[in-house]
Design a protein that fits this description.
Helix 17 packs across helix 18. Strand 21, helix 25 and strand 22 form a beta-alpha-beta unit. It contains 26 helices and 22 strands. With about 625 residues, the protein is α/β, with parallel strands linked by helices. Helices cover about 40% and strands about 15% of the residues. The longest helix has 22 residues. It folds into 3 domains: about 200 residues, Rossmann fold, CATH 3.40.50.970; about 160 residues, TPP-binding domain (Rossmann fold, 3-Layer(aba) Sandwich), CATH 3.40.50.1220; about 180 residues, Rossmann fold (3-Layer(aba) Sandwich).
């Protein structure tokens, strides 16, 4: 029988250090005042907590296993003394998404903790959302022991050393803390990844079971703090001269604002105004220009919009900013058939040089754009009025898009064979919910699938940060899991997760964890009992659907109501019913769910349409043939 051990002298010393840090108001203050020694002897687990504290990491999402009991003990003591906070979860994918959302939405660096084995594989799978969207998160996995005394539970059953460290190294930056003495180097590399100014990502830290409790001396003064580098921009005058020349020569310039432009709204607007360009958004950059701005052509790409794709297809100069040219954003490389040249502003060199005939301006988007504007002002060669015809043509397409959207939103409920009655179309229902969120100043999260694809065509943001749509990895279940971040945030914002029935069932644990930790937000579940995005693709390519639906009805109101603390409401079958349900759900002081039946069928009125190309299915030959002929 396992015997519970009393708190040891070592544990008491750890508690004293945690109390000193709490009373001083932080680690740096405790060391600076002399209340805490600069060099301390601690376990590796506590040393890691101290090192992460120095980088501002105070919050942990965790599913503890046999590989993290020692780290868990250190977290227990530090939480009891008010230094850290641990949010226990029920699914590692949900945990990874919540950590990603906390860093993405609130800028709070945090850590996800689990053990190797199925838990780590799930957490690593969930970290794909962070990796694909450039979000820095620490992933800490309790690893097999370093002594090689035999198989450790949940390790990969193969006679090879450090396999989980190798697996995580394929996903991103990884470090195995094989010895406690490597802590400083580990954290230096960690902050370089997690706090990278242009292309952050998850950092995977393998923490072997037997090294966690090992005692080691740590110099708190030399543990690396959060990496903070000055804004960088090119000093080459020639590069800016070439960029100005290309802008002056262009008749139809388009700015493609990728997800990296989030937070650089002012710079994008100033550049567009100064050079007479229009701006095409990516799903991750909606709001970089106010929705009503005449230069905002909305989203463009394989799904895109009438106006956004028109601007892409007819532009003769592409100014790519903060974009990694993912297939959906540039139509698998054929989105700019008339572009003759590219100006690319990006901090990542591989993304900077993605296109041919590129003038690359590497560095911080606002800093680089500021220097480009200075170069334009000094040349007198760029006249935005000369682009009036281009802006007028784009304005006509934007009006066409607005009229098209209005017709979709006004569509009455359609007869649906699943529901056996008329139900709202998805565009009409999403529009009602998106307007509701805007009126309440709520953040919007979109799950992968048809809800996401229609959603980024529908949202009308006036600033970045109002919509988070995980199009980088299109991870089903991200949106609902992201609501848990509000329970951990210092200054939480009410959030609304837009999800389909398929995405919701990927991570329904949010119903329990949201209540457990006090999340305040709403899940709007658009239910068509199918993977409608793939059904639509199947019909478009092969005029048939196959295995993308089911015949199992689910009472989501009853399901959600079974969790004490969740308010669940059925929206009915029309617009008035949905608006009433949204009001009722929002009045609940906690987590709520609104179940919305929506139409799924072949009538085009049921979706927002697609306007670009994509290198998938039976379109491959055509797209690849056109790609060969691109000038960029």
């Amino acid at each position: 029988m396992l015997e519970r051990r009393p708190e040891t002298e070592l544990s008491e010393a750890m508690r004293r250090r945690a109390r000193i840090i709490a009373q001083a108001g932080g680690l740096e203050a405790a060391v600076g005042s002399g209340a805490l020694d600069t060099i301390v002897e601690v376990s590796l687990s506590e040393g890691l907590l101290l090192g992460l504290l120095k980088q501002g990491v105070r919050k942990y999402f965790a599913i503890f296993g046999h590989g993290s009991t020692d780290l868990g003990e250190a977290l227990r003591v530090y939480e009891e003394e008010g230094v850290t906070r641990t949010i226990n979860c029920r699914n590692e994918v949900e945990m990874a998404h919540a950590a990603t959302a906390l860093a993405w939405q609130y800028g709070e660096t945090c850590a996800a903790v689990t053990s190797i084995g199925p838990g780590a594989l799930q957490a690593m799978a969930g970290s794909l959302a962070a990796a694909s969207n450039g979000i820095g998160v620490y992933h800490i996995y309790g690893d097999e022991t370093t002594r090689g005394e035999g198989y450790n539970m949940q390790q990969i059953p193969k006679e090879q050393q450090g396999l989980f460290g190798q697996i995580t190294a394929l996903m991103g930056q990884s470090y195995v803390l094989h010895t406690p003495g490597a802590l400083r180097d580990c954290l230096r590399r960690g902050t370089a990844c997690v706090h990278h100014p242009y292309k952050a990502g998850p950092f995977y830290l393998m923490l072997p079971l037997n090294t966690q409790p090992q005692m080691t001396e740590v110099n708190l003064a030399t543990l690396p703090g959060r990496m903070d580098v000055p804004l960088m921009a090119p000093q080459s005058e020639a590069a800016f001269v070439e960029a100005v020349r290309r802008i002056a020569a262009a008749e139809r310039p388009v700015i493609k604002a990728g997800g990296g432009t989030r937070g650089h709204d002012k710079a994008i607007r100033q550049l567009a105004e100064r050079i007479g360009a229009v701006v095409v958004e990516s799903p991750g950059s909606t709001g970089v220009l106010p929705d009503a701005d005449a230069r905002n052509m909305h989203v463009g790409g394989s799904k895109g919009s009438i106006s956004g794709n028109y601007a892409m297809e007819n532009a003769d100069l592409l100014i790519a900013i903060g974009t990694r040219a993912v297939c959906q954003a540039d139509c698998s490389g054929v989105g700019y058939p008339n572009a003759r040249a590219v100006i690319n502003i990006n901090g990542d060199l591989s993304d900077l040089t993605h296109y041919a005939n590129t003038t690359g301006l590497p560095g911080d988007i606002s800093a680089v754009t500021g220097l480009l504007l200075e170069a334009i002002a000094g040349s007198n060669a760029v006249d935005p009025a000369a682009k009036a015809d281009w802006q007028a043509a784009c304005a006509r397409k934007k009006l066409e898009w607005a009229e098209f959207k209005a017709s979709r939103y006004a569509a009455p409920p359609q007869m649906d064979e699943v529901w056996d009655c008329p139900v709202l179309t998805q565009p009409a229902a999403i529009k009602i919910a998106a307007d509701f969120a805007k009126d309440r100043d709520a953040a919007k999260f979109f799950d992968a699938g048809d809800v996401q694809a229609n959603g980024f065509q529908i949202v009308e943001d006036d600033r970045t940060g109002d919509t988070y749509t995980e199009t980088g990895a299109s991870y089903m279940g991200f949106a609902v899991s992201a609501l848990l971040a509000s329970a951990a945030a210092d200054n939480p914002r009410y959030g609304i997760a837009f999800t389909g029935d398929g995405s919701f069932m990927m991570n329904p644990q949010i119903l329990i964890d949201g209540v457990e930790h006090g999340a305040k937000g709403m899940i709007v579940l658009f239910d068509n009992r199918r993977m409608a995005a793939i059904t639509g693709l199947q019909y478009a390519q092969y005029d048939n659907e196959f295995r993308t639906n089911d015949g199992v009805p689910v009472d989501y109101v009853q399901l959600a109501s079974s969790v004490e603390g969740v308010k669940a409401v059925f929206a009915g079958y029309d617009a008035d019913g949905l608006r009433t349900a949204l009001d009722e759900a929002a009045s609940h002081d906690g987590l709520s769910l609104v179940h919305v039946p929506v139409y799924a069928g072949t009538d085009e009125i049921g979706g927002m349409g697609a306007y670009g190309s994509w290198n998938v299915g039976n379109w491959v030959d055509d797209v690849q043939a056109r790609y060969l002929k691109q000038k960029i």
